[in-house]
Amino acid sequence: MQLDPQDELLLQSVGNSLGAKPPKAIGVAVSGGSDSTALLHLMHQWSGGTGVTLHAVTVDHGLRDAAAGEAKTVARICAGLGIDHSTLRWTGWDGKGNLQDQARRARYRLMAGWARERGIEMIALGHTVEDQAETFLMRLARGSGVDGLSGMATRRVSDGVTWVRPVLLQRRQDLRDYLQRHGVGWIDDPTNEDERFDRVKIRKAMQVLADLGLDADRLAGTAQDLQFARIALEQQTREAAERIATVENGDVVLDHMQYRRLPVEIGARLFSHALCWVSSAEYRPRRMALIDAEYSADIGKVSTLHGCLITANKNEIRITREYQAVKQTACPTDEIWDNRWQLIGPHEKGLELRAFGAKGLAQCPDWRATGMPRTSLLASPAVWRKDSLIAAPLAGLGNGWLTKPLFGLDHFISSIISH
Ligand SMILES: Nc1ncnc2c1ncn2[C@@H]1O[C@H](COP(=O)(O)OP(=O)(O)OP(=O)(O)O)[C@@H](O)[C@H]1O
User: Where is the tRNA(Ile)-lysidine/2-thiocytidine synthase N-terminal domain (predicted)?
Assistant: First the structure.
């Protein structure tokens, strides 16, 4: 490819987003649309002479007849550029819930697994300014707050992979012009025109908004500002956690007097993070439910939310796993129970990890000597053989077993900052 000054600018921006010391192997997520096709070619141009090897990946969600053919087209383009390409197939659709959302989550999960298997630390995605602006408007329509409205980052770490967005500051049209300058085609996904999808309606609305000065750059700029605001709030929440939170046998305990002095937003963030951390929930509780739970804690009333039990007195607010939420959770003793507990001991077939519960309590008359609240013990892990309690180390019944929480206070605090 012959370079012109606009290509130089694009390449510079792509190179900057990959950092001063890019990893030796980088994945590129290519659907075959204009944005990711341009990304692939730009990264190919950029990588020449850097010693970086590119690996392209396409996910076939099996949702459209044309998808398999599109993946083959991407594979052919990659072969032409001498880039290794994989197609990953998703077959997990269970016919329930939001299809778009599930497909998207599956896509990220599959790509992260693919990268980890190959020792690829970084994957590049082809989001553009328009994607940033569309996401902002869609979230605004759903009533999102600072976090939801804050823009996609150019770099974030999740699932053991660093995701980068090298063309996040570029306009779609500039990427299409680049492809056209070099005679490269792309695949037009027909769902991009399907007005049943909110994103397509938003895209149409944006054409009208642009006349009012609300163009993609402006919306993306606001999303970026909110991202900085979100980072500042997370930082303050983290500092509050360092001052007032402790972790006791899997419970998060907040100093109640100090909690009352926190700014409302910081208190709500800390409370919500504690609930998610204890229950391993991916999503935050709803704002109204959270306000109710905070109010209950304030007046010392017991409440439940998000798979947690919240108890409070004037000294502390204690967020405990709720027994009801784990009473059906069972696994072999050498597996992780409730996403956060490991038991070390003489594993054996026929033994199972289940919640300690009232049945366990009845078999451990000395449980009070542990000093642990009854409600915390109920939802703690125990070793069972059918209905017989074999061990419950937290309740003082060791029998050669040890309970090991996978995460402690450090993890609680560090996971407040989203990466
Ligand atoms: N089927 C696919 N296979 C591989 N990569 C894909 C696929 N679909 C999307 N991508 C990657 O994700 C980028 C963004 O595409 P799109 O906006 O459709 O994705 P999204 O994940 O739904 O976005 P968002 O994170 O905003 O919801 C693409 O430029 C491409 O890099």
Answer: 26-204
Any idea where the domains of the chain sit in the sequence?
A: 5-224, 249-321, 325-405
The pTM for the full model equals 0.83
Helix H, strand E, coil C: the string for 209-275 is: HHHCCCCHHHHHHHHHHHHHHHHHHHHHHHHHHHHHEEEECCEEEEEHHHHHHCCHHHHHHHHHHHH
| Closest listed residue to residue 152, CA positions, set 174, 173, 171, 130 | 130
For the question of an ipTM over 0.90, the answer is yes
Class of domain 5-224: alpha beta
Q: How far away, in angstroms, is 321 Cα from ligand 1 center?
A: 36
Q: What is the pLDDT of residues 14-31, one digit of tens each?
A: 999 998 999 999 999 999
Nearest protein Cα to ligand 1, atom 6: 31
Ligand 1 within 6 A of CB of 368: no
298 among annotated binding-site residues = no
Residues with Cβ within 8 Å of 27's Cβ and at least 6 positions away in sequence, in order, are 54, 55, 56, 57, 111, 114, 115, 118, 120, 122, 123, 124, 161
Q: Is residue 35 in contact with ligand 1, taking CB distance under 6 Å?
A: yes
d(CA 377, CA 10): 58
Distance 409 CA to ligand 1 centre (A): 35
Tally the residues of the chain. 419
Task: Looking at 280-396, list the stretches that DSSP marks H as alpha helix, in order from N- to C-terminal side.
Answer: 287-298, 323-326, 357-362, 374-378
Ligand 1 contact, 17 CB (< 6 A) = no
32 is an annotated ligand-binding site residue? yes
Q: What is the pLDDT of residues 378-396, one digit of tens each?
A: 999 999 999 999 999 999 9
- Probe ligand 1: pick from 127, 167, 188, 203, max atoms within 8 Å of CB? 127
Residues 200-220: tens digit of each pLDDT: 899 899 999 999 999 999 999
Q: Does domain 249-321 have CATH number 1.10.150?
A: no
| Centre of ligand 1 from the C-alpha of residue 37, in Å | 12
